[in-house]
Amino acid sequence: MSSSTHILMCPPDHYGIHYEINPWMSTERQTDHGEAVKQWQKLRELLVTTGATIDEVPPVEGLPDLVFTANAAVIFQRQAVLARFKHSQRQGEESHFRRCLESHGLEVIETPGDFSFEGAGDALFCGETLFAGYRMRSDATGQQEIGALLGVRVLPLELVDPYYYHLDTCFCPLSPNEAIYFPGAFDEYGRRVLEEHVPHLIPVEEIEARRFACNAVVVGKTVVTNHGCPCLHADLQDRGYAPVETPLDEFVKAGGSAKCLTLRLDGEEATDWKN
Ligand code: ARG
Fold this sequence. Notes:
Blueprint (H helix, E strand, L loop, with lengths): L5 E4 L23 H17 L3 E4 L16 E4 L2 E4 L5 H4 L1 H11 L3 E3 L13 E4 L2 E6 L5 H11 L2 E6 L12 E5 L2 E4 L6 H10 L2 E4 L2 H4 L7 E3 L2 E5 L3 H9 L3 E5 L2 H4 L10 E2 L11
Parallel strand pairs: 1-2, 4-5, 7-8, 10-11, 13-14
Antiparallel strand pairs: 1-15, 3-4, 6-7, 9-10, 12-13
Arginine (ARG) binds next to loops.
C-alpha cells in the first residue's frame, strides 16, 4: 500500500526442524527444503505486489528459526525492543537481529531485567495499546516494563493452549479497532479484555486457527494468510479487506506461518501512531 512499508524477512537457506520447542515441531517430520524455499519466495513476491519493500536479514547456519523475523523485536516508532529468547536454541539469533535492526537506523533497546520476551510474536499494537501474550515464551512482568519504557499501555493476555504459544498465532490486529482472534487460545479473562478493548473482533474456528488463520500479514487492506482458511477469508471480504492465501505448510511444521516470517520495520498496520 504505502511506499514506506518495510518488511524484514530472512531467506530459508538454513531452515529446518533441528529441535523441538513447541508442539508443532517434530524432528521426525522434516521440512522439504525446495518446497520451503518456493513457499517463502511466493510469500515474498506477494508482499512486493502490495507495494512493500522487503529487507533481509542474512541467514545463518545453525539458526534454523531465524526465518521467523517476527520474533526479533517489537517496533515502536524508531525504537526496537530486542527479543530475549526463552529457549537456548534461539538465543543465538539475538545478536544477528540486533545488528540488522541497527543497520536499518532503529534504536535498539534491550529487554529490561532478565525476562524472556519474543518480540512481535508476543506483543502487538492495536490502536495505542500493546497487547501482550505471556506464559509460554514471554514474561508478563517484563512486558509491563517494556510498556513503561515506551510509554504505552500494555494489556496482558495469558496464552492457555500450547499450540498457540505466541500471541501472533491467535490474535491479529487489522486496524486500530479491528482484529482477528481465536477465542480458544485465551482464558475467560483474556477474552473479556479483548472484547472490551477491540471494538470489532473477528473470531476464527479452531479448524482454521490450526491452519494459522490468525497469523496474517496485513498491508493496507491486504491480508495474507496460509491457504485453507476459507471462512476467515469470506469474513474479511465482507468487511472490506482483500484476503490472499498462499501455501506455507513447510513453515507450519515449525509452528509458524505468514506473519511469523515477517516483521514490519515501519510498525504494524494497526498501530495508531502510523495512521
Ligand atoms: N519454531 C519457532 C519457535 O518455536 C517458530 C516461531 C514462530 N514465530 C512466531 N512469531 N509465532 O520459536
